Amino acid sequence: MSAELLQGSCHCGAVKFEVRTEIAPAGRCNCSLCRRKGALMTPRFPARQLKILSGEDALTLYQFNTQVAKHYFCKHCGIYPFHQTRTDPQQWRVNIGCLEGVDPYALEAGVADGASLSVLEDA
Asked: Pfam families given for it (predicted)?
């Protein structure tokens, strides 16, 4: 599957973005945050392939554990559109549920063992 230019947004539309990425293989993570948010994520892609079109001021940042990964949420609707990865901060992933025209329920997904990367107990 090749990388395509996709449009995305949070639920309320305050945050709009475009990204050039593949959608498969889609993945989930078993770390404490990902287990709770349950998002299906794109494969990793370089930061330059994500462009925030509007609403950068509507994003809020959440970091935990090692404080390396950067998880972004819309401060209005609470939706999680994308994050900068912990294992390689130059790589990002997008929440497939935020992409226009993509059905996350039609994709098979693997599970990454993010829980084993935690340095704090139960993080």
From this structure: GFA (PF04828)
Domain ranges of the chain: 4-111
Alpha carbon distance 115, 31 (integer Å): 4
Residue 2 clears pLDDT 90, i.e. is over it: no
- With a cut of 50, say whether residue 123 has pLDDT above it: no
Query: Could you tell me if 46 and 82 are in contact, meaning their C-beta atoms sit under 8 angstroms apart?
Result: no
Cβ neighbours of residue 67 closer than 8 Å, sequence gap 6 or more? none
Class at the top of the CATH hierarchy for domain 4-111: mainly beta
